[in-house]
Amino acid sequence: MNTKKFLSGIAASTLLLLLAFSCNTHDSAEEDAVYKQSIDRTEIKKLPSNGIDRTKIKKLPSNG
Fold this sequence. Notes:
The protein has helices spanning 2-22, 33-36. It is an all-alpha fold.
C-alpha cells in the first residue's frame, strides 16, 4: 500500500512539474530575431512554364 501511495505521489508531482513548464512563455517566437525577419516577395522568382532545366544545375564536387 505504501508503494502505491509513493508512486501516486511521484506521478502527481511529475504532472504538476510538466504543467508548470508547459505554461512558461519566456521563449516565445515574437522575441526571436529570425522570426521577425520577413521575405521580400518580389525577389522570389517564378518557376519557368517548361520546368527546371537540369543541365543548368551546378553539380557539387565529389567530396561534398
